[in-house]
TrEMBL record:
Listed name of the protein: C-type lectin domain family 4 member E-like
Source superkingdom: Eukaryota
UniProt source species: Carassius auratus (Goldfish)
High-level lineage: Eukaryota, Metazoa, Chordata, Craniata, Vertebrata
Record-linked CDD domains: CLECT_DC-SIGN_like (cd03590)
Keyword Phosphoprotein included in the entry's annotation: no
Coiled coil: 89-130
Cited SUPFAM superfamilies: C-type lectin-like (SSF56436)
GO molecular function: carbohydrate binding
One Pfam family matching this protein: Lectin_C
Length: 278
């Protein structure tokens, strides 16, 4: 009985493993004749463990690389908005700096203008407080002699007593002039305003038709062009060959309708005209 048990035990130990008879095992033994087949067949689990460990290491390495790449991509995606925000903030800071400098410049300019305003105000106050110098107006030199009135380039004299038309002309010539020659409505109005009002104030002036009836000439020989006769004048009533101006108390009468004709021998005041003295 004891002998059988030992034989069975010996067989269990020495009996080759079925896996050792496989072609892969035999190939390994042939490739490594210095190793015993028994040793090789006793370490199959170590080889498998090593392979699995290596495979796990490879997978772990792949996973790590994948995560690193994903983190880099995510970080890159996050960095882009961040960079834009940083750039925008830098530009905003630059704009704020520029605006601050501009504000400071405006404040300086305002301060300068305020100083100028105060200086001008002070100057104005000083000028207002300073009394104006007393200036005596320079009297304008009258280009006409005493008792003569000036208009344009001529001087006019209105007499206070009467003479005939021809005697009046002689007086004016002695004074260096002639009986008034009236060429414009402005001149007529000026002379008429010199005359005083009255019941029938009449004054000789330098016009007559003594040479040819109804052909009126001025004392300088020029023919009458523009006239200021009263309506119905001249009428040559009783050899009326000389002209005179009338001014009355009737306010409705106008200067441009104030000429009449009368006999030249009548005694009337007269109006002289001469050029102004230089």
């Amino acid at each position: 009985m004891s002998a059988n048990r030992e034989e069975i035990h010996a067989n269990l130990i020495d009996e080759p493993d079925d896996d050792c008879s496989s072609p892969e095992v035999r190939y390994s033994v042939l490739q490594n004749p210095d190793k015993r087949s028994k040793q090789f067949c006793q370490d199959p689990f170590k080889v498998a463990t090593a392979c699995l460990t290596a495979f796990c290491l490879v997978l772990l390495t792949i996973l790590l690389l994948t995560n690193v790449h994903r983190d880099k991509a995510r970080s890159s995606d996050q960095d882009s908005p961040f960079s834009a925000a940083v750039s925008h903030m830098q530009k905003s800071c630059a704009n704020v700096t520029a605006l601050t400098e501009e504000l400071q410049a405006v404040k300086r300019e305002k301060s300068e203008l305020e100083k100028e305003r105060m200086q001008l105000k002070k100057t104005i106050a000083e000028l207002e407080a300073t009394p104006a110098p007393q200036t005596t107006p320079v009297p304008m030199k009258n280009p006409c002699p005493e008792d003569w009135r000036h208009f344009n380039d001529s001087c006019y004299y209105v007499s206070e007593y009467g003479r005939s038309w021809s005697d009046s002309q002689e007086y004016c010539q002695r004074e260096g002039g002639h009986l008034a020659i009236i060429l414009t409505a402005e001149e007529q109005t000026f002379i008429w305003n010199l005359l005083p009002r009255g019941y029938w104030k009449s004054y000789w002036f330098g016009i007559s038709d003594e040479k040819v009836e109804d052909e009126w000439y001025w004392v300088d020989g020029t023919k009458l062009v523009q006239s200021f006769w009263e309506e119905g004048e001249p009428n040559n009533h009783g050899n009326e060959d000389c002209g005179y101006i009338v001014k009355t108390n009737v306010l409705s009468r106008v200067a441009t309708k104030s000429w009449y004709d009368a006999p030249c021998v009548m005694s009337l005041p007269w109006i002289c005209e001469k050029l102004q003295s230089s």
